[in-house]
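In the current project phase, we have settled on a layout for protein records. A sample record is reproduced below.
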Amino acid sequence: MKKDLHPQNYRPVVFQDLNNNQTYLTRSTVATDETIKVDGIEYPLVKVHISSSSHPFFTGEERIVDIEGRVDKFKARAKAAEEAKEKRAAAAKKQVARKEAKAEKAAAKQAEK
């Protein structure tokens, strides 16, 4: 094994879950400026966003992260694209009809002369 591969500065550190304020006292080499008192002793504090006490996998509770799922979002985009396509097609038909009406009117004027 390689010498001096692992750090030697392990010390007691408190990790605090920000979701439910659960704290864990363990040994770590993580550097932090914050401290917390636990049982009258001051320890370095590391704040974490999620831990086993708040993660849905470990707690067994379901959390809805996003209201619409990926499939719903895809279907909504596809529907909007289809509606936009139909709107463009209707506008193009209307424009063609106008050109034809203009051409007929011009032809009728020519026939009168």
Summary: The radius of gyration is 35 Å.
